[in-house]
Amino acid sequence: MPIKGKPNSLDIAHLAGVSQATVSRALRGHPAVNRATRERVLAVARQLNYTVDKNASNLRTQQSGTLALLLFEDPTVDDSNINPFFHSMLGSITRVCAQRGYDLLISFQQLSRDWHADYEDCHKADGLILLGYGDYREYRSRLEALVAQGTHFVRWGAVLEDQPGISIGGDNHAGGAAAARHLLALGRRRIGFLGHASQGAPEFLERYQGYAAALREAGLVADPLLQADAISTEQAGREAAELVLERGARVDALVCASDLIAIGALRALQARGLRVPDDVALTGYDDIPMAQFTTPALTSVQQDTKRAGELLVDTLLKMVQGEAMAPIKLAPQLVVRQSCGVSQAPARSPATVTTLPAHGRRPSRGARH
Amino acid sequence: MPIKGKPNSLDIAHLAGVSQATVSRALRGHPAVNRATRERVLAVARQLNYTVDKNASNLRTQQSGTLALLLFEDPTVDDSNINPFFHSMLGSITRVCAQRGYDLLISFQQLSRDWHADYEDCHKADGLILLGYGDYREYRSRLEALVAQGTHFVRWGAVLEDQPGISIGGDNHAGGAAAARHLLALGRRRIGFLGHASQGAPEFLERYQGYAAALREAGLVADPLLQADAISTEQAGREAAELVLERGARVDALVCASDLIAIGALRALQARGLRVPDDVALTGYDDIPMAQFTTPALTSVQQDTKRAGELLVDTLLKMVQGEAMAPIKLAPQLVVRQSCGVSQAPARSPATVTTLPAHGRRPSRGARH
DNA sequence: CTGAAAGCGCTTACAG
DNA sequence: CTGAAAGCGCTTACAG
């Protein structure tokens, strides 16, 4: 065997005594190839450690067998600390891609970069998965550009009306409502909300609206004095909690738009000598791994990241194949721990999990509408 | 503009009134191109939203501008739970790749899969970054195969003598010793070790050896009754702690080979009614985010994942360019929290950090040997 | 400074 | 069932 670089299909052809076209067919399992021929070719290929050059085959077929995951982060967030919620999404997406035989390209983009043309246009990926918490108003126009170019993409985030492209997200309204109802059922009445309740953060806004709706159901009104904006970081949570406390209004519970916010709030409360849950009860959102280690352990709204990853990948793959797909909302689950005080449910396991019906959308497998 | 698919360089050439070769040169910033010509080409390209087809250019140049990150996990680990330590490595590697202008392909491989030919051979990546905790004996032969094929790769893990390829890793001996010395300084004498102390897990073995060396320095001997094997999961940690306790030998401290093991041990101890740190002190390893949220917060040995990511990527990139590189050991830091009891150091901040000198290797920037 | 031409390694109609 | 040939979209000597 010559000690040249990687062998190509012509090398295999010579050694197997067939044409290069036949090598290609044999390797791809083309049905017309004679069985004996195919086996000869495969044997030679294996012996030479031959693999098909992806650049060449992709160029020829005009597809890449690769998906790109683009993660946008709030620029204010510390570079090295990706939101833990995304880790679990990433793990799930990676595995599903592998199962489907696709490679995954990943990139942590800044909103400022000119990403829209990056991957699919240059044929490095067949489609894009967008993940992130940037200001929705800022990047909505980017989504429109992607749609206009015919780029295939799915996005994790709030599922809104009249949205460019396909979004898959949790039912944030149901999740926010569940957290608030849980607190109401435990007798809390002065319930605040920590997190951006604005158009720029539609997921948080929906959680806020769910929270407010639950209060209304109970004949209460969401008190603006008990709400403070926060992005999804511990520090922002701490500052938001301090802001609410400084306003002096009575508060006996805080629904937080994320676990990181809740952890920050927990620290702020404890620093003030307030007891959680005795003085102020707390709920988080996402159920990141840390939630079970805080003291008290955090009651949180869990999103099914495993299923989310599957839906994102499979939806995108179908879109790449030309199918028209629809947005999907996933039902969240309330995970009850100790940060809200005694639950009425008998605490048999360390955490009690309640599945919530999705709000307005069917959460079932492959749900479309 | 015709509504055909993506424009190619010939389309640009026609519209700019130049040859296709000139378009290619202009786009790549070739110095010989006339300034006015280049600007005309760039203007047309921008207008048509043209991007170079990577498959074509990679095929032509025989390189990909892409690195592949292969993560191996212990097959016994739950699929959805990647070791949190790897998350932070992953974040760091991703960012460095982006900074260096490289794309990153990621894959969570099972050891069983035939990965060695996967990425570089088929020209999807110029080099491989290997990350993982599989059994070292099992995959050492794979590393040898990679070396034999001339594949460019770097690996995160124990830096051993006579190792195939280039490894970059923490100074585990120094880390294990630091944890044990800290406990010794606090008056503990019956110090155990939780984690695989075998050739199959060289990082854990080195930590164990550091621990044993520190005991020897203090005139003590590592008691086999106080050691139990564990892979890096909470459950394994719990079981290992239970095993040690069941043996009935007196124990007043446990050095754990990872934070997950320590968290499991913490739960096992507390379930038995033992107080941490009063009855048994505990140290972890890796300083994952959860370590600061346990009660008591976990004293741990921190690895500089940011720097590790930089070194992995930059070393690999140099290897791709033909440079010969050497292994690197990174100095770890002891992060003191509450799980070992009162520290002699005045606890000014919530955590006291001590940088340790690397053991036997220079930890300095770009260190080689 | 620019163009014509070769060629990277495949896949896939088109013949036979 | 198999081969000869075209062509995917680039980059880069080679001329001029």
> What's the oligomerization state?
homodimer
Largest interface, counted by CB within 8 Å of the partner chain's CB: A-B, 46 and 46 residues
CATH class of the largest domain in chain A, anyone? Answer: Alpha Beta
Strand content of chain A: 15-25%
Strand order of the largest sheet of chain A: 2-1-3-4-5-11
Helicity range of chain A? 25-40%
* Overall pLDDT of chain A: 85
- What is the succession of H and E elements of chain A? HHHHEHEEHEEHEHEHEHEEHEEE
Total strands of chain A: 13
- CATH architecture descriptor text of the largest domain in chain A: 3-Layer(aba) Sandwich
| CATH topology tier name of the largest domain in chain A | Rossmann fold
Largest sheet of chain A: 6 strands, parallel
Instruction: Label the overall shape of chain A.
Output: elongated
CATH superfamily label of the largest domain in chain A: Response regulator
The rounded distance between the terminal residues' Cα atoms of chain A is 59 Å
What's the short story on this structure?
With 369 residues, chain A is α/β, with parallel strands linked by helices. Helices cover 38% and strands 15% of the residues of chain A.
Report on this model:
Two copies of one chain form a homodimer. Chain A has 369 residues and is α/β, with parallel strands linked by helices. The first copy, chain A, folds into three domains: 9-52, Orthogonal Bundle (434 Repressor (Amino-terminal Domain)), CATH 1.10.260.40; 66-170 and 305-330, Rossmann fold (3-Layer(aba) Sandwich); 172-303 and 333-355, Response regulator (Rossmann fold, 3-Layer(aba) Sandwich), CATH 3.40.50.2300. Chain A is built from eleven helices and 13 strands. Chain A has a six-stranded parallel β-sheet with strand order 2-1-3-4-5-11, with helices on one face. A four-stranded parallel β-sheet of chain A has the order 7-6-8-9, sandwiched between helices. Chain A has a three-stranded antiparallel β-sheet with strand order 10-12-13, with helices on one face. In chain A, α8 (202-217) links the parallel β6 and β7. The longest helix of chain A has 16 residues, at 84-99. Chain A is elongated and about 85 Å long. Chain A starts with 8 loop residues before the first helix and ends in a 14-residue tail after the last strand. In chain A, 53% of the residues are buried. β2 of chain A pairs antiparallel with β2 (103-109) of chain B, so a sheet runs across the interface.
